[in-house]
Amino acid sequence: REYAKDRVAFGKPIAHHQGLAFLIVEMNAALEGARILTQEAASRADQGRAFEVAAAQAFVEAAEQAAYIGPNALQILGGPGFMADLPVEKYMRECRALGLLYGGIDRAREDIGQTYLDCDLPIQLTEYEA
């Protein structure tokens, strides 16, 4: 957010360009949604309530939003976003790995579906898991 206020393109800060401002707002909303789901799962665990489905939902949302936010953050930063001294470069590498944790997003979706539907669901391996 601060970078978008400071970086100037076409005579004004890039945060003042409507398209980029909308993108930053959407990225923030995506991040907050994942954060809320994660906090809900943690709260359930702290209270001794069933949290497995909430945790799986938080994982799926966080992995999907990381895959959305990361490339867009690089786009906003431009070339400097690829430099190792900025955290975005590290986040991009980590968000790719996040989607593969615990059997991947599809496995988490299968677990959620089995709980909701109370039946076994066959899982299709993605190209990354095969």
Concise synopsis of the structure shown:
By secondary structure, this protein is mainly α. 66% of the residues lie in helices and 3% in strands.
User: From the structure provided, what is the oligomeric state, counting identical versus distinct chains?
Assistant: single chain
Q: What percent strand?
A: under 5%
Order of helices and strands: HEEHHHH
Characterize the biggest β-sheet. 2 strands, antiparallel
Helix proportion = 55-70%
Distance between the termini: 38 Å
Which features does this protein show?
5 helices, mainly alpha, elongated, Butyryl-CoA Dehydrogenase, subunit A, domain 3
What does this structure look like?
This protein has 130 residues and is mostly helical. The chain has one domain: Butyryl-CoA Dehydrogenase, subunit A, domain 3 (Up-down Bundle). The chain has 5 helices and 2 strands. Strands 1-2 form a two-stranded antiparallel sheet. The longest helix has 29 residues. The radius of gyration is 18 Å and the shape is elongated. The model has no long low-confidence stretch (mean pLDDT 82).
